[in-house]
Amino acid sequence: MTQERPLEILRILSKAPAVSFYEILVSNLIKSILNDSGISFVEDEFGNIIAKINGLDPTIPPIAFVAHMDHPGFEVNAVSEGKITATPLGGVPHSTIYKETDCFILNKKFERVSCTLKPNPDISTREVNVVGVDNLKPQTPIFFDIEDFSVDEEFIYMRALDDLAGCAAIIAALENLIKDPPKTDVY
């Protein structure tokens, strides 16, 4: 397998922002890639995608590879008297709670709308104030405004590299295994 296919898949996945509990756009892209590649999969009640390549010898224990589709971000938790607050989801670094941070939300047309997260004066809370955008509802996901995807000679730059790189690598490996079946089942 060359590095081009995993990077191509990663570039595709990078177009879909995801925050913990709001991974549907990435999930849909992964399912589309799996369908296009002829790889069978099921989705469980929690939204996990479980793909499988059948091995040649059912007596050999299967191998499973795991990656996640989300990335740290925020979720609107309250809207009151024109004030919007949000709380972190996932492994949001503390520094983004205590300093101004550029972010975006997706509107109903899935267009990016810029906003800024500002520290809450009450430092005992992990809430941040959301400014620059109106009419948000509770449970609106907020994404870090970081570059979607680029590659230079040595590095990949991407908002959600952790762990979409794992997803891309697994999909690329499964695409190779469908052409040359392994001895054991691979999930």
Secondary structure topology:
Layout: H1 4-14, H2 24-37, E1 40-43, E2 49-52, E3 73-80, E4 83-89, E5 101-106, E6 112-119, E7 128-131, E8 141-144, E9 150-151, E10 156-157, H3 161-179
Antiparallel strand pairs: 1-2, 3-4, 3-8, 4-7, 5-6, 5-8, 6-7, 9-10
Structure commentary:
The protein is α+β, with helices and mostly antiparallel strands and 187 residues long. 24% of the residues lie in helices and 26% in strands. It is built from three helices and ten strands, in the order H-H-E-E-E-E-E-E-E-E-E-E-H. A six-stranded antiparallel barrel has the order 3-4-7-6-5-8. Strand 5 (101-106) and strand 6 (112-119) form a beta hairpin. Helix 1 packs antiparallel against helix 2 (24-37) and helix 1 (4-14) packs across helix 3. The radius of gyration is 19 Å and the shape is elongated.
